[in-house]
Specification:
The chain is of the alpha/beta class and about 900 residues long. The chain has 28 helices and 29 strands. The radius of gyration is 37 Å and the shape is globular. About 40% of the residues are buried.
């Protein structure tokens, strides 16, 4: 049999992925209750990063496990059109050609984006395939597909007709760079060092002024009032009077409003209804003018006055502060740390902006979505995220869904150019329903990208048509995603699916952690701390990467990625490969394969079979409960420590050419059976290497399934779990480990054989050591064993205690006791001298008072460590 000495993942991984796809194994198979996962659609602009690796590996592990349970499984894939991000990317390409979107027009830009999507939009899908993602690619969806676009129109019109979508002038979050509105959840706030400027507003009549404080002095040009609290005695006489707005000739009133906190600042608040959400509400209560002084590009407009028109908002700020200082109206400046909102796409500072926008009324949709989580029908894992979800839902605000870009689902609202009538319809009306005019234009705005994404559970299955997929696969079972989109996506999907399908979209939401570097920073391109997963896959293989991520990521926790954890995955793959190679090369010369009932099982066989049943049960429980790292650790410990380090080693004597045939055949059967079962356990996490090995084993060890990907997951047989056998084997292992430690103390070469004396506690132990002396011979280099309850301790000897056993290695003929004593005494003298120095230091009051706490603690740890070594050496010398 030609098996390469080292595992080479590249050819194997591509070979098996192609095979799985061609055979259609990723599609739902068979009858019964299906298991469905919806992929969080990556952006069409996306390139695989470590966050994608974690998220999609978690999903693939779950779907592969459920596929092996015999359930029809569907992992439904898709890609998001990513409105702002995609348009920004294509606009940057245009800029390199010296063009803008306005120069080429809407149709040409959209056409260019489609061209880009068709040429490069599939990159992330190809990369997910390299990772091993077993999605049903025949169902691949794109949020701008005709089917999903139809669903978007249906939902918009339906919600509008129900009074849940409306249009109005509101203060919204505006990105001057992307030139579009952003929903609250698309604004990233972070604390920044800023300034608080105090400005005098003179009385319109008489001497004096009031002082207001602001972080955005450029907006003062849009002030239409100054507000005070009606209970603030300091300003009672000013309410109703007028002030002069600095740098302008305008007079503005002093008004009273309960919103003003009289304890904050001076108790006087400038009111700018067009540029601040709180001021907007004050303005509505007092019927104030909404004066817009900054345009959609963050530039001062004509309303700001001739001195400032055309200036960028920050240039205007500098000029305003300079003029205020010249006129003696800048009272003081204070440093201030405050939260500043940034665009989640381009990081530009957000401008609160008064604009006509479309909104969804969320509160009516939220009630049932809250109830489904409260009742436990939908569960968040880890549980702590339930509180986060409930807090947001109970304080939900209307969702701004319109965006001033060209790439996306265009809002299905139409306007008559003659009479101004607005019509909301799925298709463009042929004429105005009010005046009959044929001059109709569509709303210029597009919908927020998340508006198509929130329909993902049912739009991807053909809604509004009543399809077979909807009947069969919705509700889905598990959503696996990142907690940062719990508001943007998860909560909204729950609301939309309940409203339009009257069912929950999924019953479990697993929110995983973030991939961070070794110093805890989130991995990102800008920090340069994020490796390219494709480079990793080409270097060590997808299996090693997948295992490393799963093994080191506790449920819901962040994963700290480094090259070191990758070594763990690669080493494990090599260990498995070496075990497989050893087994296949050694069993190929053993002709025949006994039936399961004709095996001549010994202790190690019964033990590994018993452990396989326990590990199968534990692993299955971990997979079912989404404790995937526990499953990985369970399999790792079984395959590496128990199967490779113990069972394979103990089987080697029976595989020798001159070994008795019944033992050979039994060892062959058990090795092949446990190895193939181990590959079944491992397949969800490491699908490629497990399929390769399982298929090769199948050539000599017949199994009914045609491929591991659709093979049955191991079902534990309780009758084969034997606690007594497990205990006997553990005793042998502990004894071998103790003998190895004694050999190490004596500094014996690995090939040196020793005799041992074992003082046993009962007849069972006597029988065990007599029957399986060969185990001690192979793994501890024991030549002869003398055991019994009444054996005497040989002198000189070294000893160890294992449970209620005493183990002795007689030293006569093994080492020269006097030379060994001298060697150990020399070590002891050195350590006692070192310990004396440590003790003196720790008894010195000056050291204890002046040294840093961590230095003192380090000395105490060293004292404990050296003391232990001294005790051990003294015991060894006493034995001699």
């Amino acid at each position: 049999m030609d098996i390469s000495k080292s595992y080479s993942p590249q050819d194997i991984e591509k070979k098996w992925y192609k095979h799985w796809e061609e055979k259609g194994y990723f599609a739902p198979r068979g009858e019964g209750k299906p298991f469905t996962i919806l992929i969080p659609p990556p952006n069409v602009t996306g390139i695989l990063h470590m966050g994608h690796v974690l998220n999609n590996t978690l999903q693939d592990v779950v779907i592969r496990y459920q596929r092996m349970q015999g359930r029809p499984t569907l992992w439904l894939p898709g890609v998001d059109h990513a409105g702002i991000a995609t348009q920004n990317m294509v606009e940057r390409q245009l800029a390199k050609e010296g063009k803008t979107r306005h120069q080429i027009g809407r149709e040409a830009l959209v056409e260019k984006i489609w061209e880009w999507k068709n040429e490069k939009g599939g990159i992330i899908i190809d990369q997910l395939k390299l990772l091993g993602a077993s999605c049903d690619w025949s169902r691949l969806r794109f949020t701008m597909d005709d089917m999903l676009s139809r669903a978007v129109k249906e939902v918009f019109v339906s919600l509008y007709q129900d009074g849940l979508i409306y249009k109005g002038k509101y203060i919204i979050n505006w990105c001057p760079r992307c030139v579009t509105a952003l929903a609250n959840d698309e604004v990233e706030h972070r604390d920044e060092n800023g300034k608080l400027w105090y400005i005098h507003y003179p009385y319109a009549e008489g001497e004096g002024h009031v002082t207001v404080a602001t972080t955005r002095p450029e907006t003062m040009l849009g002030d239409v009032a100054v507000a005070v609290n009606p209970t603030d005695e300091r300003y009672q006489n000013l309410i109703g009077k007028e002030l002069i707005l600095p740098l302008t000739d305008r007079k503005i009133p002093v008004i009273a409003d309960d919103f003003v906190d009289k304890e904050f600042g001076t108790g006087c608040v400038k009111v700018t209804p067009a540029h601040d959400p709180n001021d907007f509400e004050i303005g509505r209560r007092h019927d104030l003018e909404q004066l817009l002084v900054i345009d959609e590009h963050g530039v001062m407009n004509a309303e700001a006055g001739a001195n400032f028109v055309g200036l960028d908002r920050y240039e205007a700020r500098k000029k305003i502060l300079s003029l205020l200082e010249e006129q003696g109206l800048l009272a003081k400046t204070e440093d201030l740390k405050h939260a500043v909102g940034h665009c989640y796409r381009c990081d530009t500072v957000i401008e609160p902006y008064l604009s006509d926008q479309w909104f969804v009324k969320m509160e009516p949709l939220a009630q049932e979505a809250i109830a489904k989580v409260e009742s436990g029908e939908i569960r968040f894992q880890p549980e702590r995220w339930t509180k986060v979800y409930m807090h947001w839902m109970n304080n939900i605000r209307d969702w701004c869904i319109s965006r001033q870009i060209w790439w996306g689902h265009r809002i299905p609202a139409f306007y008559c150019e003659d009479c101004g009538e607005m019509m909301v319809a799925k298709e463009e009306p042929s004429h105005c329903t009010k005046c009959g005019s044929h001059r109709i234009r569509q709303d210029e705005d597009v919908l927020d990208t998340w508006f198509s994404s929130w329909l993902w559970p049912f739009s991807t299955m053909g809604w509004p048509e009543e399809t077979e997929d909807l009947q069969r696969f919705l509700p889905t079972q598990v959503l696996i995603t990142a907690p940062e989109i719990i508001y943007l996506w998860v909560a909204r999907m729950i609301m939309s699916t309940l409203h339009f399908r009257k069912v929950i979209p999924f019953d479990t939401v697993l929110l995983h952690g973030t991939v961070r570097d070794e110093i805890g920073r989130k991995m990102s391109k800008s920090l340069g701390n994020s490796p390219d997963p494709i480079d990793i896959i080409e270097h060590v293989g997808a299996d090693a990467l997948r295992f490393s991520m799963i093994f080191n990521t506790p449920k819901g926790a962040d994963v700290i990625y480094s090259d070191n954890i990758l070594e763990g995955g690669r080493n494990f793959a090599n260990k498995i490969w070496n075990a497989y190679r050893f087994i296949m090369l050694n069993v190929e010369t053993i002709e025949g394969l006994p039936s399961k009932n004709n095996l001549q099982l010994e202790l190690a066989d019964r033990w590994i079979i018993s452990r396989l049943q326990e590990v199968s049960r534990e692993t299955s429980e971990h997979y079912q409960n989404l404790r995937l790292n526990d499953a990985a650790q369970c399999i790792f410990q079984f395959l590496w420590d128990e199967f490779c380090s113990w069972y394979i080693e103990l089987s080697k004597d029976r595989l020798k050419e001159d070994a008795p045939l019944p033992g050979k055949l039994t060892a062959k059967y058990v090795l092949l059976d446990v190895m193939q079962a181990g590959m079944r356990l491992l397949h969800p996490i490491m699908p490629f290497i497990s399929e390769e090995i399982w298929q090769k084993i199948k050539e000599v060890f017949p199994m009914p399934e045609e491929a591991l990907i659709i093979a049955k997951f191991p079902e534990p047989d309780p009758s084969l779990i034997d606690p007594e056998i497990d205990d006997h084997m553990r005793l042998m292992q502990e004894t071998i480990t103790a003998i190895r430690n004694l050999r190490k103390q004596l500094n014996l070469p690995p090939s040196k054989m020793v005799n041992i004396v074992v003082r046993t506690a009962d007849a069972m132990q006597n029988e065990l050591f007599e029957d399986y002396q060969g185990y001690l011979n192979r793994l501890a280099k024991v030549q002869e064993i003398n055991c019994g309850a009444d054996v005497t301790k040989p002198k000189p000897a070294v000893s160890a205690v294992v449970r209620n056993l005493e183990i002795f290695i007689p030293l006569t003929g093994v080492i020269d006791p006097e030379q060994e004593k001298a060697r150990l005494q020399k070590q002891l003298d050195k350590l006692e001298k070192e310990l004396g120095g440590i003790n003196r230091k720790l008894q010195n009051p000056n050291f204890l008072q002046n040294a840093k706490a961590e230095v003192v603690e380090k000395e105490k740890e060293k004292q404990q460590e050296v003391s232990l070594k001294v005790e051990l050496l003294r015991a060894q010398i006493a034995d001699l």
